[in-house]
Design goal:
10 strands; Alpha-Beta Plaits; 2 domains; homotetramer; alpha+beta; 5-stranded mixed beta sheet; GTP binding (chains A, B, C, D)
Chain lengths: 273, 273, 273, 273
């Protein structure tokens, strides 16, 4: 049956520009806090950071956004669908439950990197990340006319990572391979396309992308294969929210798995839940 | 007062071999679970993974070990001081509170990578990470005669990361710099010394090392500076437990900050709490 | 200044009926799970239950609802403002992150107890709480025309609990006093008014009430004082959501504290945040 | 087979006195914090309290102790097996991860209430629970010669609570029944025996008891049946730790279930895990 082509037209989304709302979450004055009055136990810091991220992931995620841990002291979220009131609430709930506070910068652009650049600038304008009098900045602009294809998300994973790495190498050598692949992929996608790519565990990378063609994705994967000797495949989805786009991307990646292909675009019909 | 040299003799520990107990925590059959019966919401997976790691960090950390999130589906911990009963308990508490179970492989060696290699092998011997009938493996050997200097931990951070990156660049470009530095550092330390290095947030990397000289650390830092154009400094500590060694390393890193130096070894007196 | 009377007309809300949406959250087949294949460690159960409640409190609370732990295996939430899609999402996120699943019954009535009665019936109709084939029921009806004063919430606390109990008695004897007071209050308010009252920690009780007069509250407090020898005061608020009504009630309770009064109604102006 | 009697001699433990170590965990200056600078969102408080309790339950529980949420701002734990260093660590990990700190009072006595009385006194001696300059008190004494039968724990539940209440009544009316039963039981056991009883969810109550006979338990159950019209059964266990005693009690309670009896004592052989 060859109507697969009809079901998943590979360039379906080309020429529809993206509109990406990005939030930078920055813990206020975190570095100094971790060593005051003396260095705090590392595992307490790890626990606190991970749970803070988990709470943000749950808050943003239950509103159909995506959040990424990035460097933990700075986290990046895709927040189409969340307004200033949601952001205020996120800020308040963290203040009420953690020993630290966060600043939030929000901005919107076609290219994810441009939205993040502007979001970062809004926080930087208020003072240094280590300025102890700069707390709980909330500065942003929000999408005002949401569209069905505003977001483009690509979900990458490594071909047969379990068979080639996890079940063969010691865990650190597996991890090195994935990390080198990630380092190459994140750099390439940022430089060539202004995309933001995040390692999300296992052998998975999620990229917040502008509108890109199948050829763009193939060239990216080829580059990483050469530069880092790690072979990725990718599913790409579009949607009104990060969840919608990302969920479509996951389904497209499943298609890659079943059909042995390298790049799949989700059909334009939005999938929910 | 110039007895700083006396307080921190830089080669104090050289020639005392390390004894590192490493635990590999592997979520059983996790990949398939994340897409069964259909892909699960990404932010739920992120929340679950982060909290699972946080719980392991808290369990291991409150017994003076260190745990690292690594790839989240596979986590690595330094567990000197934890015996098989502690490991059984960790396995049971996860089973009782999460929708997934974990397998644990434990081993001991002078070089951290050798301990992890053996720990990984113990789990691999029982079946594939995606074999759904292989659950809750617990296979290991434990340190039987603990010594005061069994562990060597190096705590790296980037020189003036806030001033040069966080307050200047957009967050993703800052992150790319740190990631490229981490990718270079982890690879080098593993290849040259069999050390295990983990990004722990911000601009911090913690390495579980064998006995290494100041020259070894300087060569590592120089290599990364050339390869990735990121400048690290490092504090190094020894101790009976990961916490003890790591806490000493943090203090040594504080010394680097105050004195503008690149490599500092903690004085041999163990620091607690 | 005596315009306090003007600011807080004590019967301001009388004669505006309440519209309360109540959700019953019931863990599916939980009792049997806790002892299969043999009794699970009690502290693991306590940890799991508390965190499940915390996640529900956060999910519901960040949408301006209130959730109460009640018996932990059965939790009650006031969910005006949350629709069926929110409830589906709550159910899914628990399934994805916990070893248990939940059933949800939702209903709406003027009196809170009637809403809960109907919500409970919707779950009971699908099978026993210990029927292992009855999982993830989602049955409910939702408020369709929300009004500004739909909810009435009363926040009670014990007069000078710190001075009379916490700083004087051993903690268990303090606790017994609070518990006896709670047991009397919950019973009275349910029997006389169909209100649902929940202990929320310290010496605080939050009641979801129908429209009640100042005289009703005074009679309740007098009854408890006689029956259990514990003296409460109460702030009462109205609002479109549990948060709005509850927040107004907290402010009214602060008024009791500052003015030494026993019953205060919040001014009709809704307070947000 | 009638060797059940041999396996579970009902007075096996009588005449071996208990040695109970109790810790009072009191959040410092919590009341004022919850309303400063204005009342905090109730669901944030609920989330924070529940997670703080969960962390304490996990910390204490993974060392074989038991913790109870009690009033949340004051929690009671049975900590045989935990020394001052463990308590210091608990205090530090809370400081590092929460917006509040805790004071800890620890004491040892034959009767649980006497241990708590003394533990409470140690904190009260340092200042009021609402004295903002009194933070992180750590004052205690610890068991110095642990014995195999130091603790006696009784695990109560309500006969056929699911059939009689959960599947028949609305959840609040079920809850009222359980609460009235709990209020009567906690008061009776404290007054007659100096035991500490805690509701742990569902229809379960766990009591930390001194040495008591089967007749004592029967009289207690009869009293509650008359006073509150709720019928309990109970399993009783002894052990070196709360977990050991409590786990034996759970098994004994399972025996009640299978054999339709009202009071069962666990066989003296300690059960682990």
């Amino acid at each position: 049956m060859d109507n697969g082509t009809l079901k998943r037209p590979r360039h379906a989304y080309t020429d529809i520009v993206t509109t990406t709302q990005v939030t930078l979450v920055q813990i206020d004055n975190y570095g100094p806090w971790t060593v005051t009055p003396e260095p705090r136990r590392e595992m307490d810091l790890q626990t606190m950071q991970s749970r803070l991220f988990a709470d943000i992931a749950q808050f943003v995620g239950s509103r159909d956004g995506y959040a990424f841990f990035t460097r933990f002291d700075n986290m990046v979220a895709v927040t189409n669908g969340l307004d200033d009131r949601d952001h205020e609430r996120l800020q308040a709930t963290i203040r009420n439950r953690y020993p630290v506070t966060v600043s939030l910068g929000v901005s919107v652009a076609e290219r994810p990197i441009d939205a993040l650049e502007d979001a970062t600038g809004r926080i930087q304008a208020a003072g240094s990340a280590q300025d102890h009098s700069r707390t709980e900045v909330l500065a942003g602009e929000y999408v005002d006319a949401p569209g069905d294809d505003d977001l483009s998300i690509a979900h990458f994973d490594v071909n047969d990572a379990t068979g080639k790495y996890t079940d063969q190498l010691n865990e650190f050598d597996s991890f090195i391979r994935i990390e080198q692949g990630y380092a190459a992929l994140m750099k390439r996608l940022r430089e060539e396309h202004g995309a933001l790519s995040f390692f999300v565990g296992g052998d998975n990378i999620i990229s917040i992308c502008p509108d890109m063609t199948e050829a763009d994705y193939r060239a990216t994967i080829d580059h990483v294969s050469e530069a880092a000797d790690v072979d990725f495949k990718v599913g790409v989805g579009r949607g009104r929210s990060a969840h919608e786009a990302g969920f479509a991307a996951k389904h497209a990646l499943e298609d890659c798995r079943y059909e042995g292909t390298t790049v799949e675009f989700a059909a334009p019909t939005a999938v929910t839940r």
